[in-house]
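TL;DR need structure tokens for one chain.
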Amino acid sequence: MSHNTFGHLFRVTTWGESHGIALGCVIDGCPPNIRFSEMEIQSFLDKRRPGQSRFVTQRREPDQVRVLSGVILDDDQETMITTGTPISLMIENVDQRSKDYSDIARRYRPGHADYTYDAKYGIRDFRGGGRSSARETAARVAAGAIARKVMPDLSVRGALVSMGIKSVDRDRWNWGEVDKNDFFCPDAESVPVFTEYLDGVRKAGSSVGAVIEIVAEGVPAGLGAPIYAKLDQDIASNLMSINAVKGVEIGNGFEAARLTGEANADEMRMGNDGSPLFLSNHAGGVLGGISNGAPVVARFAVKPTSSILNPRKSIDADGNEIDVVTKGRHDPCVGIRAVPIGEAMMACTLADHYLRHRGQTGRV
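>> reply
TL;DR here they are.
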């Protein structure tokens, strides 16, 4: 299967399957002399790691990362320094239960990629979906941890803003709350609402979708290019590549269609530091495909987890009409663990565009 790589100068190739021995990625194009530690990468992987609450899959994976190449150790024997050569990262799978999937070896699960993989390749890895499994995204989170180091002063944060029919109150938005609850929720008062709601969904053997918001601050004006290398184009593409994502918007997104030109325009004044100051950020930090210096804001919609306990109508590989019940360990809302994945994809996109901008213009 081709198309396992994204990025132009900061290029990430992921490898591995849900129930294979290990998974990982190779990062090519990372500049030399960037300093990081395995502990820093691990901190982001721990945010995505399964089995941390009753609201996510109970698969027990430590997601311990190993850096195999592309670095040398500093004198403290802990800090790693990139050498400019390919960085290889590996994460072992230790809690596979392939037998959970034996019943669907020839059955197509509704909402999954079972049928489409079979139609394209004539073969599929039914054990957890193989490459179509969200397990692959652990490698992206590891790559994103390094990508954050490429652009100076970059901050990338994500939060869950809605789950099913429940949404946060933006007037109570507090980034300090995000890491204090099981939902990456920025509104403390919405946490018990989400808890009760998702408990009901989970006990019913069903699932529900979510919307995630990613905000990148410290992004300088000038990243991206008109027409075929727009910054928002690549952000949308990379966020859409995340499993179960069915929609992406930048800034106001679809809401902009409801506004007048006066309401949607981000008016400008001169700031005290001599730089332009935008009085609003409806554009999400990108104009004409190029960053304007305001926070880059993107949201993406994650569909309900397709693996549910309730029977669904389908067919098998022999053309028989069947009912499918998916066994195994699954997230009642896969959108929860998509937060650190969205952060990683935003960070990788910005690192790539930062290096492309520097390479084309010579300006940092």
